Amino acid sequence: MSGEPCVLTLPGWTSSGTDHWQSQWERRFPAITRIAQRDWDTPDPREWLDTLERAVATARPAPVLLLGHSLGALSIAHWAQHPVPHAVAAVLVAPADPDLPGAPAALHPFGPAPSGPLTIPALLIVSDNDPYLPIGRARELGHAWGAEQVEVPGAGHLNTASGHGAWPEGWALVRDFAARLGLALPPWG
Fold first, then answer.
1. For the residues of 11-47, what is the DSSP string, one character each?
2. 115-172 pLDDT, tens per residue?
3. Contact indicator for 89, 181 with CB cutoff of 8 Å
4. How many CB atoms lie within 10 A of CB 2?
5. DSSP-derived secondary structure letter, 124
6. Quick one: DSSP state of residue 184?
7. How far apart are CA 73 and CA 133, in angstroms?
8. pTM for the complete prediction?
9. Which of 43, 53, 71, 152 could form a disulfide with 12 if both were Cys (CB 3.0 to 4.6 A apart)?
10. pLDDT of residue 3
11. Which of 112, 111, 120, 116 is nearest to 92 (CA)?
């Protein structure tokens, strides 16, 4: 992979509000496009994966970098369990664990979480106090997926509620990962 990628964001359950880092990055960098799901509130795994596949296929021939948060990150992990015909990489931020006791019912159809290696390079960014993904489980999934892992201390679910609005530090992590793959992303400033 090399060059400037097509960057696609995939929010989680109920989508990402206007103050969420995904939304802010989409406004800041016009080359970033959100994958629009038909129903954010009652997610259907097959539909979400089909929508993801179509979005990636439409982006060709550019290399595709996926930026998933929560259920979006988990969806990408499911999708990347099988060989994908496109040059892609993924950043998975705070994937929600559908197998966690007490997980919202909307997440259950996405379980169990995939346990095999991803077929694309991936960076997993997690927190040590995420209520939707305990750190031990995050480490286990990251290892199973073959993903590079970054742990952000005390960062909650890495969303607006945990104080991660614009999150320039997250963009720096994404840029560094992309650069290691030969993909050029614009600087924050």
1. --TT---TTSHHHHHHHH-TTEEEPPPS-SSS--HHH
2. 999 999 999 999 999 999 999 999 999 999 999 999 999 999 999 999 999 999 999 9
3. yes
4. 10
5. E
6. -
7. 12
8. 0.96
9. 71
10. 72
11. 120
- CB of 91 closer than 8 Å to CB of 170: no
User: Whole-angstrom Cα distance, residue 117 to residue 49?
Assistant: 17
CA 37 to mean position of chain CA atoms = 14
pLDDT tens track for 63-98: 999 999 999 999 999 999 999 877 789 999 999 999
Structure tokens at 27: 């406004």
Q: What single-letter amino acid sits at 154?
A: G
**Residues written for the chain:** 189
